[in-house]
Design brief:
By secondary structure, this protein is mainly alpha-helical. The chain is built from 19 helices and five strands. The protein has three domains: 121 residues, HUPs (Rossmann fold, 3-Layer(aba) Sandwich), CATH 3.40.50.620; 111 residues, Serine Threonine Protein Phosphatase 5, Tetratricopeptide repeat (Alpha Horseshoe), CATH 1.25.40; 166 residues, DNA Cyclobutane Dipyrimidine Photolyase, subunit A, domain 3, CATH 1.10.579.10. It has a five-stranded parallel beta sheet, sandwiched between helices. Helix 5 links the parallel strand 4 and strand 5. The longest helix has 22 residues.
Length: 449
């Protein structure tokens, strides 16, 4: 009796405990493993074109890694998975456990539809599964620093070995899906590309990570957020390579801990994907109407008149990714300078980010907005000019993405309104005055307090 390994957020063969379990079960029965991926129309219609295009490439890479045996079927998982199980008379369906709200509901429906065929979850997309860690009082963590301590103390398993050979089954397949067209410049997809990028980062860039990771003008990040999103690499694999007690190792581990903290928050508060976990300003403080829509359009199109904000928004549209420091600045600008709800910005990011991941995107937006767990206080407002001067001191990042300012030298690029008349004629004027809007935000915060 064959087993099924249903790939979801684990598009890899190495360090995949669920796949190991499926292979071991098949070998005990002297049978085969069905490598299944289901194109769920609900998820497919909700994802932005950059994510769909990258997913299609990742699935093609996985198909090659499985010797062309990846079985792709289209439809509702609660219909497709049981149908494949009946087709091959499967003994079990193996999965990496879902942790996000939609995935948990989907798996409950699939398990019911499978009947006597067990749905076997093994492992999760995280080093420490969401929901596992608790405070000394037995409650979920609400603050990052104690969560990180508990996370480090708990530790994680060693990476699971890649099966030496897998008896893949041959079944009819719809083939990897054709994604909608996009002009976003996507990175290479697949497990091999992810492992190559990670090895290069560890060898060449990790030592400078504590300082360079905040510099959008430098290639100082690992860009592992993309393969982590699709499970082309597991965080446990990255942690296994982070050896020693250097500041760089500690800094990178801390960033992985943030990722796991956000997943843990969403595990306990599924509504956090849509709803603020706490109110920070009165309802009447949020802008609305045609003028608010015009400001939102200027923000999403990179026409705010603030160069660091505009560079980030244009980078997002060009490559489906944005430097994390700039994500914080652009998010703060939307919420606290334009007074627009974080949900509007989060939806735009999810539409364009290749690494768009619900717990990371939504909870990071809530952190900036001051509405989430361990949130920056609402009165912490990022100044886009000072942030630009500090983290893009020569203006290289801005000039890369804002061609209207490419002839402006040095740090002067961050304050184009101070340039001589005609120095940047095509660059838009500021849509708001930051100092004024900061006071408006603080006044609204004070009214609720």
């Amino acid at each position: 009796m064959p087993t099924i390994h249903w790939f979801r957020r684990d598009l890899r063969l190495a360090d995949n405990p669920s796949l190991v379990a499926a292979v071991e079960a098949a070998r005990r029965a002297d049978d085969e493993v069905v490598a299944l991926f289901v194109v769920d129309p609900t998820l497919w219609s909700a994802a932005g074109a950059p994510r769909l295009a990258y997913l299609a490439r990742s699935l093609r890479a996985l198909d090659e890694a499985t010797d062309g045996r990846l079985v792709v079927r289209r439809g509702r998982p609660a219909d497709v998975v049981p149908a494949v199980a009946r087709e091959v008379e499967a003994s079990a369906v193996h999965v990496t456990a879902a942790t996000e709200p939609f995935g948990r509901r989907r798996d409950d429906a699939v398990e019911r539809a499978l009947g006597d065929v067990p749905l076997v979850p093994t492992g999760s997309p995280y080093a420490v599964a969401p929901g596992r860690l608790r405070t000394g009082k037995g409650t979920p963590f609400e603050v990052f620093t104690p969560f990180r301590r508990a996370w480090l103390d708990h530790g994680w398993s060693a990476p699971a070995p890649r099966p030496r050979s897998v008896p893949w089954a041959s079944l009819p397949s719809d083939g990897p899906p054709a994604a909608p067209g996009t002009d976003v410049d996507l990175p290479r997809a697949g497990e091999a590309a992810a492992r190559h990028r990670w090895a290069a980062f560890v060898a060449d860039d990790l030592a400078r990570y504590p300082t360079d990771r905040d510099r959008p003008d430098l290639d100082g990040t690992s860009t592992m957020s993309v393969p982590l999103k699709y499970g082309e690499v597991h965080p446990r694999t990255l942690l296994a390579d982070l050896t020693g007690g250097s500041a760089a190792v500690a800094s990178y581990r801390s960033e992985l801990a943030w990722r796991e903290f956000h997943a843990d928050v969403l595990w306990h508060r599924p509504d956090a994907s849509r709803t603020s976990l706490r109110d920070v300003v009165p309802d009447d403080a949020w802008a609305s109407g045609p003028s608010a829509d015009a400001l939102f359009d200027a923000w999403r199109e990179g026409r705010t008149g603030y160069p660091l904000v505009d560079a980030g928004m244009r980078q997002l549209r060009a490559i489906g990714w944005m430097h994390n420091r700039v994500r914080m600045v652009t998010a703060s600008f939307l919420v606290k300078d334009l007074h627009l709800p974080w949900q509007r910005g989060a939806a735009h990011f999810l539409a364009w980010l290749v690494d768009g991941d619900v717990p990371q995107n939504q909870l990071n937006w809530q952190w900036v907005a001051g509405t989430g767990r361990d949130a920056a206080p609402y009165f912490r407002v990022f100044n886009p000019v000072l942030q630009g001067k500090k983290f893009d001191p020569d203006g290289r990042y801005v000039r890369q993405w804002v061609p209207e300012l490419r002839d402006v030298p040095g740090a002067a690029v961050h304050e184009p309104w101070r340039l001589p008349s005609g120095a940047a004629p095509d660059y838009p004027q500021r849509v708001v005055d930051h100092a004024t809007e900061r006071e408006v935000a603080l006044e609204a915060f004070g009214r609720l307090r």
